[in-house]
Specification:
Shape: elongated
Strand order of the largest sheet: 1-8-6-3
Number of strands: 8
CATH architecture of one domain: Beta Barrel
Radius of gyration: 27 Å
Low-confidence stretches: none
Distance between the termini: 84 Å
Structural class: mainly beta
CATH topology of one domain: OB fold (Dihydrolipoamide Acetyltransferase, E2P)
CATH class of one domain: Mainly Beta
CATH superfamily of one domain: RNA polymerase II/Efflux pump adaptor protein, barrel-sandwich hybrid domain
Mean pLDDT: 80
Strand content: 25-35%
């Protein structure tokens, strides 16, 4: 079955992190993968993280070797997508599914009434220390 090639770039897995080291590949070229299957372990300055695959298909190529340090946004693997399973399953943030139709939103309601805030007390009571401070400062 002929499919479409998708390149999976190293995502930003932590705020402010600019690179990560490839610790261990869990797949090899030719392996079949499903959406959210763990394909690689990476190590950042903060933690070791397992990355799930955002596509279903087969691994075409690994672009980096274990032990290499990769900048965020660089391609790490190419996947030959063989089915449109991404429409049925959740995917990794930043690799959302493509929508073929226009998304419609409900119109805003313009006649919404503002809630009236009822007064709970006629005057505020201040603690003695606050009253003394107010008196001293004028």
């Amino acid at each position: 079955m002929t499919g479409q090639q998708q390149v999976f770039n190293l995502p930003d897995v932590g705020e402010g992190l600019t690179e990560a080291e490839i610790v261990k590949w869990r797949v090899r070229p030719g392996d079949s993968v499903s959406v959210n299957q763990i394909i690689v372990e990476i190590e950042t300055a903060k933690a070791v993280v397992e990355l799930p695959c955002p596509y279903a298909g087969s691994i075409e190529a690994l672009h980096v070797h274990e032990g290499e340090i990769v900048p965020v946004g660089s391609p790490i693997v190419t996947i030959l997508v063989t089915a449109k399973t991404e429409d049925r399953e959740p995917v990794l943030v930043g690799y959302g599914v493509k929508v073929d139709h226009e998304i419609r939103r409900r119109p805003r309601k313009t006649d919404v009434q503002q809630a009236q805030v009822a007064a709970t007390a006629t005057s505020a009571r201040a603690k003695p220390l606050v009253r003394k401070l107010a008196k001293d400062l004028g």
